[in-house]
Amino acid sequence: MLNPSQNKVIYSGTGRRKTSIARVQIIPGSGKLIINGLPGESYLQFSPNYLRRSCSPLNILGLNKEYDTYVKTEGGGLTGQADAIRLGLARALCNINPENRVMLKSEGLLRRDSRIKERKKYGLRKARKAPQYSKR
């Protein structure tokens, strides 16, 4: 997709994890990460695990200094958002070059993690935790 104001090509991908949704756009640039208008480091609270996880598709392909990443994310917490960014980024990189898909798929980065919180049932304290049994 072509951005008319800058004449740069924008590649996009959507990632989801738990209740988080991340819309990722990558543009050829210097390697900066912007999440919801903030630098990626400050948005992810300078956590090396979140930063490593969210940028892992770029690191695997060796493209971490070649593309600027712009992300709009909502819902969930930082763990879900970081994983949603990872999936969206991997999908966007597949749009750039179909050959990237082989490497990303072998690393398991194109698979959506479908685990979500199980709903609470009536008569129970949580989804499966029952109140203490009293014999008498």
Automatic annotation (TrEMBL):
Domain of life per record: Eukaryota
A Gene Ontology term for the protein's cellular component: chloroplast
GO biological process assignments: translation
Signal sequence coordinates: none
GO molecular function: RNA binding; structural constituent of ribosome
One Pfam family per UniProt: Ribosomal_S9
Keywords attached to this entry: Chloroplast, Plastid, Ribonucleoprotein, Ribosomal protein
Gene3D superfamilies xrefs: 3.30.230.10
Annotated localization: Plastid, Chloroplast
Claim: Chloroplast is one of the keywords in the record: yes
Family under the similarity heading: Belongs to the universal ribosomal protein uS9 family.
UniProt-recorded name of the protein: Small ribosomal subunit protein uS9c
